[in-house]
From TrEMBL:
The chain crosses the membrane at residues 34-58, 64-83, 104-128, 134-154, 166-184. It comes from the Bacteria. InterPro entries: GDT1-like (IPR001727). This is GDT1 family protein. Coiled coil: none annotated. GO terms for cellular component: membrane. It is found in: Membrane. Keywords: Membrane, Transmembrane, Transmembrane helix.
Length: 188
């Protein structure tokens, strides 16, 4: 339990104001909250399971530059995709409201890529070198999902008061900034 509580607290605080929280807010303006939260949870659980395994074995042996560049390119792609927008027929619109598969996939992939080599991943690796892997995994996952759930609530509130065009441009700008920041961070 000690590993759980320490990991939950450390990761929750580390996630506040992080790019992942801003991404959660951005996705929440475009998609329903449950697929966004589910995508974050899936990606976080996988990345943090990998992190505690790595922390238990070798600690800090990740090729962070390549991961950051791939993630940055993916975010630039998300920005272009968001700017392009989609036109739906009435039938497609009704189907889109019933399904959450595409939102879940987009959020899961985006969060998975953004968390590789991120400070919360590195913090989870470090915590796993000092505490039990299972408590660290569950605590770090819950801490991150809780922090991002706060961002989803804020994103949904903003989404109800802003025109769709403003949301689309803001989301595209946010994805472009995330992508550029990841690439610059990797190259510098």
């Amino acid at each position: 339990m000690e590993a759980f509580w320490i990991s939950l607290g450390v990761i929750f605080v580390a996630e506040l104001g992080d790019k992942s929280q801003l991404m959660a807010m951005t996705f929440a303006t475009r998609f329903k909250p449950w697929p966004v939260l589910a995508g974050i949870t899936i990606a976080t659980a996988v990345v943090h399971l990998f992190s505690v395994g790595l922390g238990g074995l070798i600690g800090d042996a990740l090729p962070q530059t390549a991961i950051a560049i791939v993630a940055g390119i993916a975010f630039l792609g998300f920005a272009l995709w968001t700017l392009r927008g989609d036109e739906l027929s009435e039938e497609e619109s009704q189907k889109a409201q019933r399904t959450t598969r595409h939102a879940l996939i987009a959020v899961t992939v985006a969060f998975f890529l953004s968390e590789l080599g991120d400070k919360t991943m590195l913090a989870t690796i470090t915590l796993a070198t000092q505490h039990g892997w299972f408590g660290t995994w569950i605590g770090s996952t819950v801490g991150m999902v809780a922090a991002d759930a706060l961002a989803i609530v804020v994103g949904r509130m903003l989404g109800k008061h802003l025109p769709e065009k403003v949301i689309r441009y803001a989301a595209a700008a946010a994805f472009a900034l995330f992508g550029a920041a990841l690439i610059l961070e990797a190259l510098l």
